[in-house]
Amino acid sequence: MSTLTTTERDEISRANDSGLQPVVFVHGLWLLSSSWDRWRALFEDQGFTTIAPGWPDDPGSVEEARRNPEVFAHKMVKQVTDHYLEAIDGLTIAPAVVGHSFGGLIAQKIAGTGASTATVAIDPAPFQGVLPLPLSSLKSASAVLGNPLNFGRAVALTLEEFRFGWANALDDDEAEELWTTYHVAASGVPLFQAATANVNPFTETKVDTKNPARGPLLIVSGEKDNTVPRAITDAVYRLQQKNPGLTEFIEIPNRGHSLTIDSGWRTVADEVLAFLERQTAIG
């Protein structure tokens, strides 16, 4: 049975009708697909077409999400990946894929299937084989991992938790503005899946880094990210660099985990845009 919504199907049809190179945006935990709206407008101004599916059962707005946070519970990495692969299967042109945080992990899983023509993973959550566990990452994840019962729950971040994990490179006013504007509850399961990835041979966080059909990949790291510090993105890059395809890495100075939604989003988006213009038919 399809998990795509009417809105998602309409976006796919619009992309196909355009005949343009599509870009699929994949959000991570604690955000909705609307967090990509400014990116989508920019990319479409530059000649791409875009789609931004949500995760299965995502509410249509932040307000609705806050009224019904329980809908986020129990979402798992494979379930979400399959949802995006179904959307991609509906496109007539193989897309580029851009993901942030757990969306960055999912983007790499998609790339590992050969379904994307080029891929960007921004501060991606770790997959099986990524070994570093920096203290700041553990502290950021403790909002969920600190209570085993959160495995089956939808968990929201307090403003203090959001400041540490996402907005540590911002002033307090902007941190609160982002928390108020974008933050929603998130499934606890993916964090437990990532935390146990290296001791679970059946983990859903496996990424096929060796598939020669993976295509070009860019890893983007925020210099001051507490949730996905440089040690993690370096480890991701080292594993992906073994692929025969092009693998590039850039670090964005003075940026935290909020780098896709905060006031400096355009700096990141321009880097991603330039990479995809070089690696797709747009270029």
What does this molecule look like?
The protein is α/β, with parallel strands linked by helices and 283 residues long. Helices cover 40% and strands 12% of the residues. It contains 11 helices and 8 strands. A 6-stranded parallel sheet has the order 2-1-3-4-7-8, with helices on both faces. Helix 4 (77-89) crosses helix 5 (102-112). It is globular and about 45 Å long. The N and C termini lie far apart (37 Å). The relative contact order is 0.16. The mean pLDDT is 97.
Overall mean pLDDT stands at 97
Low-confidence stretches at least 5 residues in length (pLDDT < 50)?
Answer: none
Strand order of the largest sheet: 2-1-3-4-7-8
- Apparent shape: globular
Helix-strand makeup class: alpha/beta
Counting DSSP E segments of at least 2 residues, the number of strands comes to 8
Helix-strand pattern: HEHEHHEHEHEHHEHEHEH
Radius of gyration: 17 Å
Q: How much strand?
A: 5-15%
Largest sheet: 6 strands, parallel
Figure out the total of helices. Answer: 11
Oligomeric composition of the shown chains: single chain
Give the terminus-to-terminus CA distance: 37 Å
Helix content: 40-55%
Quick synopsis:
The chain has 283 residues and is α/β, with parallel strands linked by helices. It has helices at 6-18, 37-45, 62-67, 77-89, 102-112, 135-145, 159-165, 172-182, 189-195, 230-240, 265-279, and strands at 22-26, 49-51, 96-100, 118-122, 154-155, 186-187, 217-222, 247-252.
